[in-house]
Specification:
It contains eleven helices and 14 strands. It is an alpha+beta fold. The structure holds adenosine-5'-diphosphate (ADP) and magnesium ion.
Length: about 350
């Protein structure tokens, strides 16, 4: 099968997840330059697709011409690795919608899920509706409060529509009203979206990958161990942990299959992940990020449609543990996507 591996060029130089948004021009966000990764996720995916006996090729979605060239590319399936269009990650859902309009088959989530997951505050309202526990929160846009639960400190402040820990660093966790106000203004000055204020949940950081459609399967929980972070840093997977290669925060944190979970807790984590997958109507593959308190209460932090797919990503670690090597995982995603269109 001819398979187009579709990606946006902002992925060429930036690490996964760190993408340009429409930043307020008055206060440009300073973006760090990073070395190019030795091998990009899409290169791994392309190789794995080929290993499954298909005929893959790259299609870079670099603007209007590339959009219109796609239906003529001869692709029988699009492996959708885009997370932005022309550097704007709010347009991630639009790319999937475009593929739908063209009747092109593609892997992963549809526009509906991409849109819902992108707006963290909307996703949290949906979780509440379904009885899925998520931290209490408030949403503020340019000083206007849109939603307000009762909140207790400590809190964490994040841009409501970002990912890859953009806008989340050691300063995101606030303990006083003053710190809160300062951080809310900081987020609003930098990002063209609401500030999401959440109760900070102390606990283990657990990710559950899910694969499938009619009967999705939750994979073994993977933990990002944050216990060895420098003492003065909050225990969060902030920008430093995800991207600051060479920093202490980066070096002392690792994702591994979670150990020491009781059978009951593991089951509840997997059930919660499946509920989230279902609530957002995710497809083919997804990852649900959670926190587990010392009392074993589970809080959903966010849902990731089309999550990071590198061999070292949490989803691949979990799949490996469940008996699927990387090639098998990618092959399965292709098969599931194709099956949807028959
Ligand atoms: N309410 C919260 N309580 C504790 N930690 C949180 C909370 N929200 C976010 N975090 C920490 O910040 C990280 C990034 O937050 P997340 O909402 O997943 O942003 P992103 O979409 O950028 O990954 C999480 O993985 C977690 O470590
Ligand atoms: Mg996250």
């Amino acid at each position: 099968m001819r398979i187009a591996v579709l990606y946006d060029p902002s992925d060429n130089l930036l690490p996964h997840g760190e993408r340009r948004r429409k930043e307020c021009p008055a206060v440009p966000v300073r973006r760090r330059k990073r070395e190019r990764r030795s091998k990009l996720d899409r290169e791994h995916v392309l190789d794995a697709i080929r290993a499954n006996g298909h005929d893959p090729f790259f299609h870079e979605l670099g603007g209007e011409q590339a959009l219109f060239a796609l239906p003529k590319s001869g692709a029988e399936l699009v492996f959708n690795m885009t997370e932005a269009y022309e550097g704007d990650d709010l347009k991630e859902a639009h790319v999937a919608a475009f593929l739908d309009l063209l009747d092109l088959r593609y892997t992963g989530a549809g526009p509906y899920s991409l849109f819902l997951a992108q707006d963290k505050s909307l996703a949290k309202k949906l979780f509440n509706f379904h009885g899925i526990r998520t931290p209490n929160f408030a949403t503020v846009t340019r000083g206007k409060v849109e939603h307000m639960d009762d909140l207790g400190f400590p809190l964490i402040v994040k841009p409501a529509s970002e990912d890859g820990s953009v806008g989340i660093d050691a300063g995101a966790v606030v303990k006083t009203v003053r710190e809160l106000m300062e951080r809310v203004s900081w987020v609003q000055e930098r990002f063209d979206c609401a500030a999401l204020i959440e109760e900070y949940i102390e606990g283990r950081e657990i990710y559950v990958g899910v694969l499938g459609n009619e009967k999705p399967e939750a994979l073994p929980p993977v933990e990002l161990d944050l216990s060895r972070l420098p003492k003065d840093m909050p225990r969060i997977a902030g920008r430093e942990v995800k991207w600051d290669k060479g920093s202490e925060a980066y070096d002392v944190t690792r994702s591994e299959v979670a150990e020491g979970l009781t059978g009951d807790l593991k089951k509840r984590l997997q059930e919660t992940a499946l509920e989230v997958y279902d609530a957002l109507k995710l497809r083919d593959y997804g990852r649900v990020d959670m926190r587990v308190t010392p009392k074993n209460e589970i809080f959903v932090i966010e849902a990731n449609p089309n999550p990071w797919l590198a061999p070292e990503a949490e989803l691949a670690i979990a799949a490996q543990n469940a008996g699927r090597d990387y090639e098998k995982l990618i092959g399965e995603i292709v098969t599931m996507a194709v099956a949807r269109y028959f």
